[in-house]
Write the structure tokens for this entry.
Amino acid sequence: MKSQDLDKYIFRYSIDANTLEEENKLLKTTVEQLTEQLDKLKENPLMVCEIREMINDKAIIKIPNGNEFLVNILEGVKGLAAGDTVLVEQKNLTIIKKLSTKKSFDVEKFVIVEKPEITWKEIGGLDKQIREIQEVVELPLKKPELFKKIGITPPKGILLYGPPGTGKTLLAKAVAASTNSTFIEVVGSELVQKFIGEGAKLIKEVFTLAKEKAPSIIFVDEIDALAAKRIEIGTSGEREVQRTFMQFLAELDGFKPLNNVKVIGCTNRKDILDPAITRPGRLDRLIYVPICDENGRLEILKVHTKNMNLAKGINFNTINKKMEEFSGAEIRAVCTEAGYFAIRKNKSKVEKEDFLAAIDKVKKEEELEGKDYIGMFG
């Protein structure tokens, strides 16, 4: 074999050796990665828990199912306090690591946050209630210096109560609009049903959000679901509701009345509310929102028909008398249905007959709902 050929063979083999060496390194790295992943798969998962109380060198934790345990803390885990989120070993629940403090969820995904544009002129038949809300909510938000000058503290919140459909939510939105406040709506029944185990945290974050977006109004609809009279029954669901309610009371007690945050509760069942919610210093101004009288119904009817294309000669007084005991929501439904009756007849204007037909339809729907309600409970 010639020396030139020998050199070629030696060069080729040296290249192959280098290539094999690189491949070998790559394979070793891959094996190490796979081994590491396999070790992770073999590890027991850690449980996320919340510290309820610190007792010397131990802690009371709450596990996800709601049970509480007194547990040890791994040496080297420092700076723990009540409310911290921690990782615990599943077998003996020893605290392994503290998690960084973060919101458990984005609170704005679970409440309605808006800037309403409803004006006082769009609410009819509730002059007395509007006057009271302006005194209790609007005036302190617009002119807090008046209260400081006189030396009195305005109420932190109010409770709107009365039959359904009478305009309680509209009143709350209108005062938010008149004060240019952020309107944060929380539904009590959804809070209780959807957020078992998280209700108290959500309440805390709602108040934090309200302070961040001040001036703001926290509107708690169906507050009776959250603040009903407490009973001595030990089911986990009822205990959770009570914890959420106690957090709500603590938040009410924890902020000053002049810090541009107001709370408005709304209920159809004032009779079942816990007295703790309406005691002085909390939602202590009670405003009853009733079914409107004849004059009030006429005002509401004019509000809802002001943009409608009406036929000439419609006598609102005649239509109004047909709607005795109608709520504001039902009067609005009548106006909407009257418009539909006109559309079905291909008319460009709404006539008296359309309103009368709409009144009959709304009455029948109310009667059917009443029968269904009696059938459920009777």
Remarks:
- The CA atoms of residues 124 and 299 lie 5 Å apart.
